[in-house]
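Can anyone check this?
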Amino acid sequence: MNKDGKASVTGRARRPANNINAFGKKGEMISHRLHFSFVYMQLAYGYCCGLYTISIAFDLIFYIKAKYMQKQSVIILGHGSKSAHAIEDFNYVVNILKQKMDHPFVFGAHMEMAQPSLEEVVENMNNEGVEKVTILPYFLFNGNHIKEDIPEKIELLEKAYPGINFSFGTPIGKEPMMADIMLKKVLELA
């Protein structure tokens, strides 16, 4: 009982005399001070624990990425060329992908006329303990190299390296971004 002879509930703030609190709602039992204190405690607790949780999550992600990605390799497979400029352009694209993936086992290889060959890169990856090799063709269209030559090479590699799981991607093909690139080239000449 309070001094007016009315029952009071411990832990609750009294209602304002007009039955309207600071938020302007009738019947609210919690004063704005208690409400803000509670919200502040939740935010402070959530902020501290949230940052800790986020930190643990990022550590776990980086650990999983490091463990998983150590065992896999990406090989960008180009046609190959006798032209040093063509090889330089190809290596530029491979290096950009390597930076974007932030992964040490991203390599370029060539079908013919240039080094390293696909077979050489896979041999190196096998020596590094890689268990998965993803081969992405740096070709525009679904021609004979994509349909026949590369699958035959991969079949031979699967027999030579049974401990490695190989996957083969698709060529650039009908990629809408290619039209954007071509448009950019047209506009550069206009």
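Reply from J.R.: I decoded it. The chain has two domains: 20-70, 71-189.
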